[in-house]
Amino acid sequence: MRIVQANAVYDPAVRTPAALLDQYRTLTEWSVAVSQAGAEVSVVQRYSSASTLERDGITYRFTADTLPPWLSTKDSPQTFIDAIAALKPDVVHVNGLIFPQLVAGIRAAVGPRTVIVVQHHGGEFPIRGSGLVGMWRRRRWQAGLAAADALSFTSAEQAEPWRAAGVLGHHHVIEIVEASTTLRTVSRERARAALGVSGDPLILWVGRLTTNKDPLAVLDGLELALPQLPDARVMMVFADDTLFESVDARVRGSQVLSRAVSLAGRVSRDEMPNYYGAADVFVSGSHSEGSGYALIEALAAGVVPVVTDIPAFRKIAGSAGGRWTPGNANEMSQTLVSVVHGGLAAQRPASIAQFERALSWPALAGQTVREYRALFESKRTAA
């Protein structure tokens, strides 16, 4: 079974195709894992210049066109589409549910017998307007996505808002977590020594300081919980610092938080294994997610999750740790205290087991190949 992974966006600041692959770890790791699971995988990637690279047994074809690095919903670059069709794929895996015209263009090029799976990578459907304008936009989206044989979400629940908006029809929905991690694990003692940190428990936040991640709700919950956890310490790792001034002021303005919370800021990927290795609890306040890369990495390291009760996190975390309603600081506090008092050492194996069973690259790649092969065989039989 020949699978072509189609990636239509790129970072214009990345100067070479090799550097782009270094940065796009999910793209390369997905390709290698699915190849190892038994499929023949190649990748077509839009970029500022055309070239071909071989890496880890995967061929990456870079195509160039005059469109912006981030496609609009109306864009359908023919050079990119032609490169996909030239590989004569059995399955085309399209990254991103927000390029309906591209999906329609791929279908026109590859014909009716090729399976097209479009994978959701987060974000809300960008459809605006009411009346005739809204109706026209929705019909354009419907027409584009109707060319797909299946849509892939981390959780099937994530398809419901798209259906409610009138964008999706009776599409076949596949439930596959969009990514995993190869992050190495570090022992607790070694990690804490490397960072010079302590805490019982040591609580870790990894995420952008944005309203969707809601760090202020998490801090409100921590302020309520920490008096019941007098030896606890909190590390907050973040790259996007949109709400930094508000977060910093919130921490500084509270005796409880200022004593326990450390704002670590941006941390290199090479250093992140120490943060996950040192932590006992992982917290998140997200209101919506396509998946949850940091949560996946935390589970791989055996960190116990206390995260919001949203579809992606329910799917990823399974029965490990605890969940709370987004924005509800009281519930966050109660969940955190309950999980900690339940004995973290006894809960760590459940986090690791959830990762290995449902989230590791071999697990996700095996599921992907099974699902895609079933779609391919079904279409071939029907034809």
Explain what the structure shows.
With about 375 residues, the protein is α/β, with parallel strands linked by helices. It has 2 domains: about 1-180 and about 360-380, Glycogen Phosphorylase B (Rossmann fold); about 190-360, Glycogen Phosphorylase B (Rossmann fold, 3-Layer(aba) Sandwich), CATH 3.40.50.2000. The protein has helices at about 15-25, 25-35, 80-85, 100-110, 130-145, 160-165, 190-195, 215-225, 245-250, 255-260, 270-280, 295-300, 310-315, 330-340, 345-360, 360-380; strands at about 1-5, 40-45, 50-55, 60-65, 90-95, 115-120, 150-155, 170-175, 200-205, 235, 260-265, 280-285, 305-310, 320-325. The strands form 2 sheets. It has an 8-stranded mixed beta sheet with strand order 3-4-2-1-5-6-7-8, with helices on both faces. Helix 2 (about 25-35) packs across helix 16 (about 360-380), helix 7 packs across helix 11 and helix 12 (about 295-300) crosses helix 15 (about 345-360). The radius of gyration is 22 Å and the shape is elongated. The two termini are about 15 Å apart.
